[in-house]
Write a structure and sequence with these properties.
11 helices; alpha+beta; 441 residues; 15 strands; 3-stranded antiparallel beta sheet; two-stranded antiparallel ribbon; 15% strand
């Protein structure tokens, strides 16, 4: 007897097919060619035949004359089939029903994916179904930071937004995802972000509010996404952003708080700049020509270099004025002077161009210091600093050196480095300091 639905061979006692579960049809013979005929011809009653299970032959127990009845009972006629394990079948059916109850998409994914197992597929949502298409552009995020004109843009994949949109819809094959990421337990949003991370390594700099910038995809692991999830396709294209939210720059004009004066005589004049700006402009550098050939009426251009402006941009300050012209004035007429020896009192300093003109080019002896009072020694010592362009916090010293035509004070005390001194200057500084100490000054 065979199942009329699937053709599976049935045992005489089977009421349902062990293969497909269809009910057995007992009043119809599927294939009459399988019905035994009597040995040696003649008629016999099939009810009296029995199966000899050892040699597959049929014998007549008690032949009876009469017509052959093909619809007689065949209980002992067919070879016996070993019954299937019905418990296994039932367990499989129950498992399928559980998967279907857990979610049609996950169950279908499990049944169609030979590499998956139940625990891998169910690592996704229990509401998952096939997702036809995901637009990655919707989850590209741009963040802006810094000051206007010096702003920075960083791009990233918005995992929070993606998880909110697809977290309950995506089924992730954890086994395949683990082979790619090395992570044992990974969420769908984290897996998608991992496959896309190479696209977000580079940002943009030098940005201003209102700039239009473009993010371009360069490496989308589309195959990995489709193979490891129930997403059928992903789409993406360039994404445009408009820069906003950068902090406004603080604008400064350094020329508003400087004093420009000219020292010396006609034809030998020099520029002197006094910087009265407050922090952080106290150390801003001004460029100008100061070769000592100025005369009244000349025009001097004082400027601030682009490099200096860039330095302050990084501090959030925009230099709005970078150059300015000044007309030379106030230089004394050059006249021939007659030298008259005038006795100098011990308490009066010798206000000449230098106290010690050669303190930077030869060693000074103590005997040369013997005629100087406390104030002259102080000036002689600081004269070595002034010659190197150092400015002074002490107002009296600054005023004194401002009157010297050779002086060009451009370096603040905080930024001055004594490494600029040569061997003579170092030795003479030590000598003057030692002599002052000996005199009790």
């Amino acid at each position: 007897m065979f199942c009329v639905k699937c053709g599976y061979k049935l045992s005489p006692e089977d009421v349902f097919c062990n293969n497909c579960g269809a009910k057995r049809e007992t009043d119809t013979v599927k294939n009459q060619s399988n019905v035994a005929t009597p040995q040696g011809g003649g008629n016999y009653n099939i009810n009296s035949a029995f199966f000899n299970g050892g040699n597959n032959t049929y014998t007549q127990n008690s032949p009876v004359a009469g017509n052959y009845n093909p619809y007689a009972s065949t209980q002992n006629f067919y070879p016996q089939q070993k019954p299937k394990n019905k418990g296994v079948v039932i367990a499989v059916i129950v498992t399928v029903l559980v998967l279907l109850a857990a979610g049609g998409g996950a169950a279908a994914y499990f049944l169609l994916n030979k590499d998956a197992d139940i625990k891998d597929v169910l690592s996704g949502s229990d509401k998952a179904s096939v997702i036809d298409e995901v637009d990655l552009n919707e989850f590209v995020k741009a963040e802006f930071s810094g000051k206007d004109t010096e702003g920075e843009a960083k791009f990233s994949f918005d995992k929070v937004a993606f998880d909110k949109e697809y977290g309950e819809k995506i089924t992730l094959n954890a086994k395949k995802a683990r082979a790619i990421t090395g992570e044992k337990d990974i969420k769908a949003a984290d897996f998608i972000a991992y496959t896309l991370e190479n696209n977000f390594e580079e940002g943009m700099t030098g940005l201003s509010n209102g700039d239009e910038i473009r993010f371009s995809w360069k490496d989308v692991s589309k195959v990995d996404i489709v193979n490891c999830t129930n997403i059928k396709n992903v789409v993406y294209s360039d994404v445009d952003f408009k820069v906003s939210g950068l902090d406004k720059l603080e604008e400064k004009d350094p020329f508003e708080n400087i004093d420009v004066s000219f020292q010396g005589t006609e034809g030998t004049g020099k520029v002197l700049i006094t910087n009265n700006n407050k922090s952080p402009l106290t150390d801003i550098k001004f460029d100008f020509s100061n070769d000592g050939t100025l005369k009244n009426g000349d025009v001097v251009k004082i400027s601030i270099s682009s490099k200096e402006c860039e330095k302050y941009l990084k501090k959030g300050i925009k230099i709005i004025e970078t150059e300015k012209d000044y007309t030379v004035s106030g230089l004394k007429e050059k006249v021939q002077e007659t030298v008259t020896e005038v006795p100098v009192e011990e308490s009066q300093p010798k206000y000449t161009e230098y106290i010690l003109p050669e303190s930077n080019s030869r060693y000074i002896s103590k005997s040369e210091l013997a005629g100087f009072n406390e104030q002259q020694l102080r000036i002689a010592r600081n004269e070595i600093y002034a010659r190197r362009g150092r400015r002074f916090n002490d107002a009296s010293l600054q005023t004194y050196f401002n009157t010297c035509s050779w002086y060009n004070g451009t370096i603040s005390p905080e930024n001055f480095n004594e490494d600029v001194f040569n061997q003579y200057e170092r030795s003479n500084l030590d000598l003057i300091t030692e002599y002052e100490s000996e005199r009790g000054y």
